[in-house]
Fold:
Amino acid sequence: MIYSAPIRTLAGCDGRYPTLEEESACMAYAASLPARLRVADLISQKEAEIVRYAIDHLKRHYPRFAPQHDRAWEKASRDMTLHLRYAVQAMVVDDLEMPKDKLYVWITTIVRGTGHTPQIMRDGIGAMVEACQRLLPADAMAIAEPYLHRMVHDLSDFPEPMKPAVD
Amino acid sequence: MFSRMMKLVNQTDSLYLSANQQKQLLDYGASLGRRFAAIRSLERQENAIVELALQAWQQAHAELGTPEEFGWDSAENDLRLVLRSLAISHLMDDMDYAEARVLRHLRRTLEFADVPADAIRDLFACLVEAVREKLEPADFSQLENDLQRSVAAAEAGLMAVS
Structure:
């Protein structure tokens, strides 16, 4: 699997030179790279705050979550931090599919197996996006937004459990 | 896995890119215009380069006869594919692409045709020299490292066989 839109474009030129359209697409990505890295930096600086906001949101809406899990919020913080970092990686390399292949598919398998609902994932991960909207400048959010929304979608895209572990 | 960019990102594991890694990515992005300019020049001169390289190689290894005579009917086409794969590798900043897609297959093809090891190495060297002759110095200089690596890969591959 080849990740990153510009690299996939180039790999698609197997046996030939890139077309002018393909060159333009690669050059547009190159031009956007400084801004993508700037947004990645901003998110890394606000990471703890973003994750804390989401955890506080979950604490309010799912008060029975912690008593039912060992070190619930500690583990949730760790996992949500990881989810956010993969979304940021996706933004840097311009590849919406990469986080799902590399991480989210495993996470959804685990949370589904442990009886969690798509809704709790949507709420928790969605709260991280909300925190980003509050904490990042509008132009930075515009760059990150597609990758953050895709994170919410991919991490809540699994069937409802027969019996929810937490309600 | 192709491209230095993705290798860099994978090295971060689950962390953010370090300042050094960011600089490498930015340098790559900033170099893409020069990379495209050089490969466009290669594209324009492709026929002349292939012709010159084959001519020089056949003169240097007259004992082999013509490529058709020893069963390499697709010589011109194969050398075009070598140049194109090197061009894509150069744009990706990753020689693994050319090696995996074309170079190693061409070396094996020639080995099966009983072309001696030094002649295989010389073929890649002739190609580099033809590029040097046909391209502007700035374009050649931009591509030179990757072109020379194709010669080094031939040498390394042949050393492993012998």
The mean pLDDT of chain B is 91. Chain B has one domain: 32-161. The CA atoms of residues 9 and 15 of chain B lie 9 Å apart. Helices of chain B lie at 4-11, 19-44, 46-60, 75-92, 96-112, 117-134, 137-161.
